[in-house]
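Model it.
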Amino acid sequence: MGLSESQRNRCISILDTLQSYSISKMFAQPVDPDRDNVPNYFNSVKKPMDLGTVRTKLMNDEYNSIAEWKEDMDLIWNNSLLVNSKRSILGIITLDMQSKYQSLVKFLTD
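Modeled.
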């Protein structure tokens, strides 16, 4: 069935807000182990996800619920924390973005 137009627009608005932060750039596209200097990325991360892929899935009406969309969004932060220590610069950026995201979706449900 997919998301309603208002649900999809709300998710897009949240993505737009998150991507307005310059620190969001590291989550904008799929991780490339060579380019991003994480050669063992796929040993840790079994289901990669990024903001660009989430946006594409939204635009192609691939989400059946807000919960499904949130799963992919949570995957972005969780994947980053699998490969980056919470005390590293990238880990701190991840936690900051995750916090921003969580405040934006606090009242967003199916």
